[in-house]
């Protein structure tokens, strides 16, 4: 990882924070904030690819020669091309100079008609909430990011890949958590895990005060972030405890829509939820296909056989076998309608209470396999 900095003389000061992009393969995030020095644009780049100082400076010089806005610019890059860098900077500066501040701040801008699975975590969270009610908590401009990644040579994300928002869903107060699967595979670390656990704890406090909040988890995650293994384990344990405690007062809904799926400890978290909504593209399991193949051998499970992988862990199979509740189309409207249909009344019997039934079913499966 390499740090590149620069300053440029500028004129018009921006009056809003702007964030765009994702720290994912071949992409980058750009964050614009008010200038720390009047009349100056200060640029700070963290890139995963070393040795391209000259290329970066040429791209930045060319861009700021024709864009006269004073601000602090933070770029977190994960191998983007010079063309992509220019595109993201242009998008960010267009939003910074947009006349309608509320429109510029709307995360769903430009996402109409896109499949739900192609939206960023921020767009997915906003699409679930009622229009105009979106309020992000600990967003990118708050710079609550992991302190463990940069020392390991990994470019961090300004929100650590976890988007937290409050608003309403069909008029009901709601809290939405969305994990960005394109950042470190949606892995849970100290910061992202703490953000999720805090949402559940805050919702519990509100519920105990007679003000229940609908909680929705949009899960695209491979489980624990290996670079923060023990801290990730602790965070996921807190998430599990938070879900179970909250269920006495209000249901918790998990949505698993995208190609990353939901695995590991967060697969357990999904299994604790009262409602699980999936698309056909979504996958849900404890161990991922590659892990099963590594441990049991390719004869047991071929992780490169996409048909087998989705037949075993995909949304259609999970709904058919009762491991998930609703199979929906890959659109924001379909997912939102399913979330609304989950209701607000706490369940009388939770998924985790059915452990004896699940163990009996597992025993029957084992017996059938042995008999063959």
From TrEMBL:
Keyword Aminoacyl-tRNA synthetase set for record: no
Protein modification: Covalently binds the prosthetic group of malonate decarboxylase.
Domain CoA carboxyltransferase N-terminal, first and last residues per copy: 82-351
Gene Ontology terms: cellular component: cytoplasm
Keywords of this entry: Cytoplasm, Lyase, Phosphoprotein, Transferase
Coiled-coil residue spans: none
Primary localization: cytoplasm
MF term (GO), any: acetyl-CoA carboxylase activity
O-(phosphoribosyl dephospho-coenzyme A)serine: residues bearing it: 25
InterPro entries: AcCoA_carboxyl_beta, ClpP/crotonase-like_dom_sf, COA_CT_N, Mal_deCO2ase/Cit_lyase_ACP, Malonate_beta, Malonate_deCO2ase_dsu
GO annotation (BP), single: malonyl-CoA biosynthetic process
Cellular localisation: Cytoplasm
Protein name as catalogued: Malonate decarboxylase acyl carrier protein
């Amino acid at each position: 990882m390499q740090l590149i900095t620069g300053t440029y003389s500028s004129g018009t000061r921006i009056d809003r924070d702007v964030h765009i992009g994702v720290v994912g393969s071949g992409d980058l995030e750009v964050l614009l904030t008010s200038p720390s020095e009047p009349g100056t644009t200060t640029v700070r780049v963290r890139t995963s690819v070393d040795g391209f100082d000259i290329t970066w400076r040429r791209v930045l010089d060319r861009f700021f020669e024709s864009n006269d806005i004073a601000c602090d610019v933070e770029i977190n890059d994960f191998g983007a091309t010079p063309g992509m860098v220019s595109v993201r900077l242009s998008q960010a500066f267009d939003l910074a100079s947009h006349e309608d501040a509320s429109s510029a701040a709307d995360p769903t801008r430009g996402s109409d008609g896109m499949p739900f699975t192609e939206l960023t975590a921020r767009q997915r969270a906003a699409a679930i909430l009622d229009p105009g009610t979106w309020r992000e908590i600990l967003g990118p401009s708050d710079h609550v990011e992991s302190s463990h990644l940069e020392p390991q040579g990994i470019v961090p994300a300004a929100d650590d890949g976890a988007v937290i928002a409050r608003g309403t869903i069909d008029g009901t107060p709601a809290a939405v958590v969305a994990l960005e699967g394109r950042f470190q595979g949606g892995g849970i670390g100290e910061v992202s895990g703490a953000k999720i656990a805090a949402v559940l704890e805050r919702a519990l406090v509100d519920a105990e005060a007679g003000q229940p909040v609908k909680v929705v988890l949009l899960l695209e995650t491979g489980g624990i972030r290996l670079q923060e293994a023990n801290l990730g384990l602790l965070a996921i344990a807190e998430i599990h405890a938070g879900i179970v405690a909250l269920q006495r007062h209000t249901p918790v809904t998990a949505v698993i829509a995208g190609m990353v799926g939901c695995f590991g400890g967060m697969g357990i978290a999904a299994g604790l939820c009262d409602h699980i909504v999936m698309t056909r593209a979504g996958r849900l399991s404890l161990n991922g296909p590659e892990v099963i193949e590594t441990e049991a051998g390719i004869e047991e499970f071929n992780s490169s056989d996409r048909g087998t992988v989705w037949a075993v862990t995909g949304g259609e199979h999970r709904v058919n076998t009762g491991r998930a509740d609703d199979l929906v189309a890959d659109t924001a409207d379909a997912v939102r309608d399913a979330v609304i249909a989950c209701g607000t009344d706490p369940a009388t019997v939770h998924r985790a209470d059915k452990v004896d039934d699940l163990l009996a079913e597992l025993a029957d499966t084992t017996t059938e396999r042995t008999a063959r």
